Structures are given as C-alpha cells and as structure tokens.
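input
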Amino acid sequence: MKPAPFDYAAARDLDHALALFGEAEGEAKYIAGGQTLGPMLNLRLSQPDRLIDLGRIDALRDARSEGDRVVFGAGVRHAEIEDGLLPDPSGGLMPQAAARLAYRAIRNRGTLGGSLVHADPAAEWPNILLALDATVHLRGLAGAREVRLGDFQLGYLTTDLAPDEIVASISIPVLGPTARWGYHKLCRQPGEFAQSLAVTVVFGPGRVRCVLGCAGPVPLLLKAVSALAGGVSGWRDDVRTEIAAALETDLSAAGIAVDAVDLRAHAATVARSMKDALA
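output
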C-alpha cells in the first residue's frame, strides 16, 4: 500500500518545526528516522495532513557531556551508539544493547527519541533508559518541560507527549567507576522484539534499579527485586528462589497477571541480569 496524500515540510530547527506544526491545517505528525511511522503511513494506520521532517535538525543529532550527565539529542541513531561514536554514560550497557537491537539497516535510521515515543514495552531503550534513571526533555508550543522516564511512559504505545511536543533530548546520569550492570533479552531469533527483557543497574551500595520489559503495558521498575539486589553483597545461586518470589510481589503490586511459563521466563531473565550485575 501507499500512504494517503500529505503535505511535507523539512524543519530547519526546533522553533521552525513547532511553527510548522502550529500552522498546519488538520493533523500534523513529526518524523525522524521513520522506522515506526513509515510503515504506519504505508498501511494508512496514520494519515496526517502534514508530515514535519526533523531529520535535518543538527541539535537533535548532538550528544554532549554536562557534568555528571550525558545529554543525547533525540535524533541520535542506534548505530552511532553501537559504534561508540558518542559519549557513553552507561559503562558499556548502551552500546551492547544497541548492537542487539533489530538489524543494522534499522539501527542506521532508527533514533533514540523515536523508540521512546513509540513506547513499546518490549523495546530496548524504554527499559534500559528507565533502569539508568533517564530524564526526557520536551519542547512544545507552550514551552519546554522535562519528565522522568518512569512518568513519561503511560501505557502500551502511550506516552505523556502532547500532540505538538517534540522529544528534544534525553539526559542520562553517568555511572560511577564501581557501578555494574546486567542485561538479558529472550527472543526466538536475533533482531526480534523480546519475549522477556531484564536490566539490572547497580549504582552503588544499596542503590539498585531492576527493570523488566514485556510483562505489562510499560517497562516495570521492580521495587521488591531491586531491594533484594541492594541487600546482597554478591551473587549466589540460591538467591534465584528469592528473586522469583520478589518478582511475583512486584507483578502483583502492578496488577499484572502472567501464566506460569511467562513467569518462569521473566524470573530467568531477571536472575541472569542480576547475576551479571552482582557477580
């Protein structure tokens, strides 16, 4: 299929993009890498009257260190992270995850901000950036605002983004020299979306963030599992039973019911990610 007719405009900068949105007659949509919106246009699942291209905005392709954080423009591409072309606040977690995201052709075009806006709970960046405690910086017709990633992701394919707003950048705290992490993804074959995805980041003694994807409408910050991980000094195999029990507590608290097979898969990915972070 081919997309429905639309007006196309390429924005020079963020202010120009917002002006183009404000001037649009009918529905307007922003596009950057196009790895999600492109197929939706072709299938006519999305039929905007105006398409505003953000791909030529240099500020969205920037990445810079700012004290104890690294700020990524939303237009940074997965392949640039994979290839180590940008500052890495994550101690290797982000490049490793980028290398396992879909296929190289997609990584060459897909963007960090686009993945967050799509908000698929099985995707890498919504889970990994939640574990890293990232903040999303937005620009809209009403001005600028920032949102913690845990508050940005509201539901399946649903975010706190207003129709006119653009994700301008994402800021991520720099992990300290003693920080550790673990990341595991379960899928049938390389390149597929995960059936289960878990990330554990140990920022320091007693401060751990464990995140599980694919179990509910949003990536889930596992509070009971994180507390368990923060209370042990290292990995031991007999902790797997405690992890499974803590995971059930977190899923129940979130109102998420999974069958025995999925629960076992999620417990395994969480345990593997924790083992890598604590070993």
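quick obs: The radius of gyration is 19 Å.
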